[in-house]
């Protein structure tokens, strides 16, 4: 009931109760989308980890099935951690996952469908060869997990990566196999100069440099780049580079950059993500785990913890320098009532309500036109970390060209608000667009993590409109700046701006006016997530 559970979402994927973390082995198979995820069947905190399993025809509405993978043998008795699906020739899905074995070592195991003619693939059988990959001597057995989807080279051999840490440095180890059973270690795929924690949940896939087509994981056309994503230090970082299976060498264009001026999928809360190739719609889809920013005690009280992001399609930008992400088209089926404003001046110092929609469960798109760019404030210090800039230039600090944007999940008196906004600044003679998500006033409740997030949007505000899409869903706001070039996700727990008391505003707290070219906002319907049909009895 919504009054008891004001923070449960309407159109994000979440189980009915308990803890959820990483998305695992997403796939499209025989007309059905599958999502597995790290799940604690017995509580709202991390522990007792199994692979829960849900299926969907449209990636929006889901049916929860029985847990697919849970501890059964010495190779996974202490937990079934993250992993991926590979579609083997003859269209046979194989799950590769990290098992925590009897000695608490991390080992890599396989599970196969019991019966591939079951359209829902409800039962999975562990391979008699488990464990297939055990930690090599040079790695700590506590840092060896999260196998990727495997890809096939020109030599027909399979490759996959396992996340790891060697001598205190995060890395991904490449393995090769002819038969998908015996795996040989090749070595680190790439040695980063960035000093990081262990690389969790690596993901490695090709993107086309030419078209808006997506590529299957083994695709090796000429016009491709490869994306390597790794999760560490609380974020999902990626690099782009060239990779060919002939040499298995990955030559990168950039290195992981720890500051928020580097490439990240999302500059807010977003972790342990994974992509898959959707052969039905020929696109690559990204799922990410959005964790809570409240306390464990609060999670126990509400009985659940963790969301999945809206599935996003991923492509390379036209410049080829970064990725763009966009909520999958199917999301728009949930749009109900729409309100639209065209060509409107937004004077400096104004706050205008967007009324007529359900502001706690909405989708909003707005684009701003800058008419007086000469007024942009200059920032000339050398190292500008956008996230730090956003924590000093909050939504309530008066600027010049900015802050302007949206106040989501706001109370009528504006005491509570999650502000997603832009600043146009001049840095070393060039115009830059800063995007921020300011949680500092998101709730009157104490004990919450209200860190502000930020990133730059790679665009030219002299010629392009500055666009923002925010998908608002009770306790989550996923924002896409510059048509998906810069994404920021926030988790918030307002105390006043709850349910039909929540409001949405467009604001400009700069001294200079900007123009709203177009603003459209929609009420969003609920996605259907049907209850579990049958679950194993608690231990
Ligand atoms: N979560 C899993 C691990 C992974 C981590 C355990 C990332 O396999 O490294 O639940 O959130």
UniProtKB/TrEMBL annotation:
Native source organism of the sequence: Rhodamnia argentea
Protein name: Beta-fructofuranosidase, cell wall isozyme-like
Lineage, broadest ranks: Eukaryota, Viridiplantae, Streptophyta, Embryophyta, Tracheophyta
Source superkingdom: Eukaryota
Keywords: Glycosidase, Hydrolase
The Glycosyl hydrolase family 32 C-terminal domain, residue ranges: 330-523
Residues annotated as domain Glycosyl hydrolase family 32 N-terminal: 12-327
Record keyword Glycoprotein present: no
Family the entry assigns: Belongs to the glycosyl hydrolase 32 family.
GO biological process, one term: carbohydrate metabolic process
GO molecular function: hydrolase activity, hydrolyzing O-glycosyl compounds
CDD domains noted in UniProt: GH32_Fruct1-like
